[in-house]
Design a protein that fits this description.
The protein has ten helices and ten strands. The chain is an alpha/beta fold and 277 residues long. It has a single domain, classed as Dihydropteroate synthase-like (TIM Barrel, Alpha-Beta Barrel), CATH 3.20.20.20. The chain has an eight-stranded parallel beta sheet. The chain has a two-stranded antiparallel sheet with strand order 1-2. Strand 1 and strand 2 form a beta hairpin. Helix 1 crosses helix 2 and helix 2 runs parallel beside helix 3. The protein starts with a strand and ends with a helix. It binds 9-methylguanine.
Amino acid sequence: MRMKFAGRELDLSRSHVMGIVNVTPDSFSDGGQYNTTELAVQRARQMVADGATFVDVGGESTRPGAAPVSEQEELDRVSPVVEAIARQLDVVVSVDTSSAAVMREGASLGAGLINDVRALQREGAVEAAVETGLPVCLMHMKGAPGTMQERPEYRHVVRDVAAFLMDRVRVCESAGVPADQILLDPGFGFGKSAEHNFQLLAALEQMRMLGYPLLVGMSRKTMLGQVTGREVSERLPASVAAATISALKGVSVIRVHDVRETVDAVRVVEAMQSAAY
Ligand code: 9MG
């Protein structure tokens, strides 16, 4: 299971760690774009030193209640960071966006992956993704970020999420996205109760059987607070536990804030797997 990300080929039968680099006003409290870019690159550099294979650069918060961002604002936030990281660091830069313009710009600046929490459903997104020739991550979200956590309901969460993802796969492949450039993501925390999230976590092997590599993100999320009673700043152990389960269940890319600790956990899983007889 190999996939090429802007010239870098990776074996996705292994688990890789993706570091999160948010470029939103609350992520760096500083006084300007230059400073923000510098700090974002610094953060990415540390993540690479800690073992990240990917860094995911995003300029629009998808947290419930977050203010929407104009396309121009998103471009202004993300472009210099993508360009600087792609030029300076040996890492696959993923661009976390639903905007066709940001996808095109990100690709031209050296991004290697499009990570879209809206699964390329915005106008022009599928066409833009095809044009870039980059792999895409299609994520499931029920509803919209502002309201998605208001009593989400499913007939059967695992089947419903799988059906949505396979429908998006069909649309994307018909439009020209090659099957071997698609990753799928059940979208932990995006329109799901704690029970839905943990049912999806338990069913990751089933999701793998859809035939596409998986990317997941649970780092510091509410679902971990709901079972541990911990605030966001205290969720590292639970995040590492969730990442460990993901690696054991064959997830290819694990999106996290805490790269060093997660890479250690993935290495333990890999050591066990290569020792198994
Ligand atoms: C941007 N973003 C925030 N959470 C995410 C998740 O769980 N998966 C993906 N693919 N992107 C996410």
